[in-house]
TrEMBL record:
This is 4164_t:CDS:1. Pfam families: Kelch_KLHDC2_KLHL20_DRC7. The keyword Transcription does not apply. Residues 1-23 form the signal peptide. SUPFAM superfamilies: Kelch motif (SSF117281). The chain crosses the membrane at residues 376-401. The keyword Calcium does not apply. It comes from Funneliformis caledonium.
């Protein structure tokens, strides 16, 4: 080996060592932001876009994640920077979910571009190849919106209600099939009034619940909306239902986060703003019982953080994981908050994440006797069909039994020469088919990204 070549190799090794040391001594620390997205795919939470509190475009470009497969402390999170492979322009107030054929793609819809950047309507990030692309989507013509919440069901359909289009607040429903890549427009009959920065939660295989939000006809006459009424969108029936709540109803608010409790029977909301003011700590956390539509303030222990809004919240294991937002001091409260919601009798604010098996919540309907619920006719149809099959089998078995009995009696009456007496015939019992009983277990409810911008 020549002396020159040896020198080059040594220099290359020194450079690699310097890069490694520098990455360890200067780890990536994301800037505080609001209006971002937070998407759980496998064991990672991916963060994209948003606006930082000093109003630069740095946060709008950043793309990063952290692992939730093992324990961590919110004061010492190991962030992984993917900004160098990000091809999405700087933006905020978009909607994102996981979807696609293998359910491992991040789908980003809409949003507001920074500094007149040009964005496509939808982007996808393949977490297996770590690459961005712009999908070709067919179907209905749809518009670009922002300040809305994306909800994806277990069939890969993304539901996008309301939000803003060129400053106008809407109440339409757009539906993107992330598997077939087709657009469809849902029903707006009996839909909630126009709103953006609302709360939305996927509560079962059939329903999405919407609550709160903000409405304005101009930039100076906006109003935060009441949580006294909540709204269900029936994804199967493509129709809307309204329910009136009672109890300790939260103050009117927007820009809060909402998640489904681990028992599948409660909606938990945190934070938000009212008339452009941050909420007091005692007015930040509420629970809505989906069985009787009653609001309450849960018992909470641990160090209670200050309120924030325009943040994100996801459920991972037994925790409500709240990320970033506006209105908090990052020198006092962590960018990531953890609320242990495993015990309905007492929630716990904590800094320590301890992974455990996800608790699977049972599905909840708006109420069991809802006349518009399509689950009832389906259940009736299954029951009737099962009864018809069972009765047919019973009648078939009965006639087969009679036929064999008649045949046997005829054989007894006309024995063949040399045969034994008819008392020596052994008649086996005819087996009547029994109905198979299926025990339908609770279906896993995908994790969903339960907050908005």
């Amino acid at each position: 080996m020549s002396k020159t070549k040896t020198i080059y190799i040594i220099l290359w090794l020194l450079i690699q060592l310097l890069i490694e040391v520098n990455s360890q001594t200067n780890p990536f620390i994301p800037i505080q932001r609001y209006g971002h997205t937070a998407t759980i795919i496998d064991s990672k939470i991916y963060f994209l876009g948003g606006r930082d509190v000093v109003d630069t475009d740095r946060s709008g470009r950043e793309f990063f994640y952290f692992e939730v497969s093992g324990p961590f402390n919110t004061q010492n999170i190991l962030w992984h920077d993917l900004t160098n492979i990000n091809t999405v322009p700087a933006h905020l107030s978009a909607a994102s979910v996981k979807g696609g054929i293998n359910n491992k793609n991040l789908f980003l819809y809409g949003g507001v571009e920074y500094y007149k950047a040009t964005m496509s309507l939808v982007y996808t990030f393949d977490t297996l190849s770590n690459s961005w692309s712009i999908p070709k989507i067919t179907g209905d013509n749809v518009i670009r919106k922002d300040n809305l919440k994306g909800i994806v069901d277990d069939k890969g359909k993304l539901y996008l209600f309301g939000g803003r289009y060129n400053g106008t607040i809407l109440n339409d429903m757009l539906i993107l099939d992330t598997i077939s890549l087709t657009w469809k427009i849902g029903s707006s009959i009996n839909a909630p009034s126009p709103r953006d920065v609302y709360g939305a939660v996927y509560i079962s295989k059939q329903f999405i619940v919407y609550l709160g939000g903000y409405y304005a006809t101009s930039y100076i006459d906006g109003v935060s909306l009441s949580l006294k009424e909540i709204y269900y969108y029936d994804m199967i029936g493509n129709l809307w239902l309204t329910r009136v709540t009672t109890g300790t109803i939260p103050s009117d608010r927007d820009s809060f986060s909402a998640v489904l409790g681990l028992d599948g029977q409660q909606v938990i909301i945190f934070g938000g703003t009212n008339a452009l003011n941050n909420l007091k700590p005692q007015d930040t956390l509420y629970v809505l019982n989906l069985l009787n539509y009653e609001w309450s303030i849960p018992k909470v222990s641990g160090l209670i953080p200050g309120s924030r809004y325009w943040h994100e919240a996801n459920v991972i294991g037994r925790y409500m994981v709240i990320s970033f937002g506006f209105g908090y001091d990052s020198n006092v409260d962590n960018d990531i908050l953890l609320l242990d919601i495993s015990n309905n009798e007492e929630y716990i604010w904590t800094n320590n994440f301890d992974p455990n098996d996800t608790i699977v919540p049972p599905p909840v309907s708006p109420n069991n006797d809802s006349p518009t619920s399509t689950s009832i006719p389906v259940m009736i149809g299954i029951s009737v069909g099962t009864c018809v099959v069972v009765i047919s089998l019973l009648f078939g078995g009965f006639y087969l039994y009679k036929w064999r009995k008649t045949k046997t009696e005829n054989m007894r009456a006309l024995p063949t020469p040399g045969s034994a007496s008819d008392n020596n015939f052994n008649h086996g019992a005819l087996a009547i088919p029994t109905r198979t009983v299926y025990n339908y277990g609770q279906e896993a409810i995908p994790t969903h990204e339960n907050s908005y911008y």
